[in-house]
Specification:
The chain has eleven helices and twelve strands.
């Protein structure tokens, strides 16, 4: 069996574990000839050991750019312009390309939507797993190969010792995604960034991959940042969820609370669009309007042009995240009237 994280890394009983991932006021910019576009604006997130945090929102919200910033794979000319990204207390947003390359795989694992982009068609999956482990762990070729076969068994590809000799094209899409998950975890990272890992799979395979992801990460105490638009996946695997709109986090909280009683109007409208299994579900809902384009984000609350409850204050002032029980919500509707006037 593949080795697991040492119990010495677990927090002491009764003491909260420090976050594995700590993002503070992250700002990602994309310079153009005419102006600088802000794609991620003041995002703050924390993920604890063994916790799965879901980052959700419509396409264009900035979810994938946030994940790319964490793993150091922002496409030029995109850049981190402000804020901090800390991994187990160490700041990593200013590391060089070579330093981030050493960090990826060993301390940060990544899973992407299309497994074929992560697998080399010219090499067997056993060779790729073994090479990944030898690059980050002190293993002999024989031990790395034995662990590669064990990892295939661990992710449900049997017999691992035989299938390790096969090439990526000899596996189904669901099996390839399992192999990519093994690749992401085989060097025992502390953080896993998973960007739409189930989108290319059918529903039955999605459930299998989600269950596998949840089991492997919780057994090893790996923190997971799960980027997705699938609320079913969020409900199944995530401990907490952060709702993102136009580059900003509008609501963060325990998954059950956010899904049952969303407080931010965007979170409420987003969840209302999820098809219902009720006997008479009625017509499918949609959110009027569209996500603002980069460079056209309105003043105040970015959601106010589409919000059915928008006030004049929403059009003028940007709301900051405020605590609401166990949640953080950026909405003037929950803040009460401003001092010295009415909303």
């Amino acid at each position: 069996m593949p080795s697991t994280q040492s119990s010495a890394e677990s927090p002491a009983p009764g003491r909260a574990a420090p976050p594995v991932l700590d993002i503070r006021d992250l700002r990602v910019e994309i310079p153009t000839r005419r102006r600088i576009l802000v794609a991620v604006d003041g995002v703050s997130l924390q993920v604890a050991p063994g916790e799965v945090l879901g980052l959700v929102g419509e396409s264009g919200a900035g979810k994938s750019l946030t994940g790319s910033a964490v793993i150091g794979l922002l496409e030029p000319p995109g850049r981190i312009a402000a804020g901090e990204i800390r991994l187990e207390g160490r700041r990593i947003d200013g590391l060089s390309h070579a330093e981030m390359r050493r960090l990826r795989g060993r301390r940060i694992g990544a899973v992407f939507q299309d497994p074929l982009t992560s697998l080399n068609p010219l090499f067997t999956v056993g060779d790729q797993l073994a090479e990944t482990m030898r690059a980050h762990l002190e293993l002999s070729p024989g031990e790395a190969w034995r662990r590669a076969a064990a990892w295939l068994d661990e992710v449900g590809i049997h017999p691992g010792a035989v299938r390790a000799h096969h090439h990526p094209h000899q596996f189904s899409g669901g099996m390839r995604q399992r192999i990519v998950l093994a690749l992401a975890l085989c060097a025992e990272p502390r953080l896993l960034v998973a960007d739409e890992p189930t989108t290319a799979l059918d529903v039955s395979l999605q459930a299998q991959v989600v269950a596998l992801l949840r089991r492997l990460c919780r057994e090893r105490g790996v923190a997971v940042l799960l980027i997705t638009h699938d609320m079913g996946v969020v409900a199944e695997i995530c401990d907490r969820v952060a709702v993102m709109y136009a580059g900003r986090i509008v609501e963060t909280g325990p998954t059950a609370q956010v899904l049952r009683t969303p407080l931010h109007p965007y979170a409420r409208e987003l969840l209302a669009c999820v098809p219902s299994l009720a006997p008479q579900p009625g017509r499918l809902r949609q959110i009027d309007g569209a996500m603002p384009r980069l460079g056209e984000v309105p003043a105040g609350c970015a959601f106010h042009p589409r919000c059915p409850d928008a006030m004049e204050r929403c059009r003028r002032e940007r709301p900051e995240a405020r605590p609401e029980g166990e949640r953080l919500v950026a909405c003037w509707l929950l803040a009460g009237p401003p001092q010295g006037g009415t909303p």
